[in-house]
Amino acid sequence: MSPRPRSKTPRHIARAIGPLAAALLLAGATPCLAARWTWSGSGVVDFKGIHRVPDANELGKHGAIVEWSIKPNVEVSEKVSVTARLCTSCHGLTIDQAYAEVRLRREVNLEAGRINVPFGDYYQRHDPASDALLSKPLPFEMGHMLRYQATQFNLGVLPMPYVDSGATLFGDVWLGEALQIWYGVFGANGFRSQNAQDFTFKDQVSTAGFEDNNDRLSWGGRLALARGEVTAGGSYLQGEYDPAAAYGYRAWGVDGSARLLGFQLRAEYLERDTEVSDAGARRTLEKKGFYGQIETPAWRKMSAAWRIDGLLREGPSLGTDNDVSSGILRWALCVSVAPALEYSFRAQYEHWRFTDFADADVVHVGLVVTY
Fold first, then answer.
1. What is the tens place of the pLDDT at every residue in 287-345?
2. Exposed (0-12), middle (13-18) or buried (19+): which is 115, by Cβ within 10 Å?
3. Which of helix, strand or coil describes residue 4?
4. Could you tell me which CATH class the domain 11-370 is placed in?
5. In three state form, how does the secondary structure of 260-322 look?
6. Binning pLDDT at 50, 70 and 90, where does residue 6 land?
7. What separation in angstroms does the CA of 69 have from each of 30, 44, 66, 120?
């Protein structure tokens, strides 16, 4: 396979992302004492059990898992706000968002700093308290995925939340009174790894993840259309991830949602192609994933959600336990009881089917709190 042409992003533009974000944050923070502060956040305690396997430790994390976040927002003026988000989960305690937003007009806005990169529909619901199930869809799964380790599937297609240092230009346009178009175009440091053997989520959230490792911007965007309670969207991104910027990745996805007879329907499909070095040869590692989800309307403080999702890994094994083609198919059912708007109790069952490994069942019992 011939090398893919490198990104033409000049190095001085890549280096400018950090100072630009800092300048915007300082400009927004200067009059903060007179600004309006708001706070929000969530907490999840998930008791997770893995069953039908001889050794649950081989498959991943289990037991009591805590995810917690707090998000202060400062409205400096009608045009400027500053937001940060501190969270803890399987990756430890980290600041996963810290950005300034400048609202020029409805059609043109800018956010810069440590941003939540707009890719897919799920990026808006990656917090467990914002979704109807306790686990993420397989294409976006992180450390709670079974066989997530770098020696096995190495997470899903695009780990969520995908937070990076960069900037997004975004806005929405109305065509008539019925059709709304939202767009977002971003430039960011991109995923990173010290070698051309794919990248891991830990590389993204570690201290080194706040700096670019090759002075090449990752770029992409998202376009979404909404008409009433029906939405459709598409996303794309690409970049280089190794220190020499010689190996790249490309990802794209489509999504849709609709509300029908009180039921919320959601679906997404995405793919990522990553160039890797396999015994000195340039190869392509492909990951493909999907999910479909149905959420029932609330009835006497109870609701339910059902999801089916899948993940396919194709390409060189790179020293993992996988075959050249390895897949997962999972279905999950979650029942939620919400005595109040601020908290709910959830119970969830999942059945995992692997092409290369034994099947497994997972049971979750959790408490979700929002504030």
1. 999 999 999 988 889 999 999 999 999 998 887 777 788 999 999 999 999 999 899 99
2. buried
3. coil
4. mainly beta
5. ECCEEEEEEEEEEEEEEEECCEEEEEEEEEEEEEEECCCECCEEEEEEEEEEEEECCCCCCCC
6. very low
7. 25, 9, 10, 22
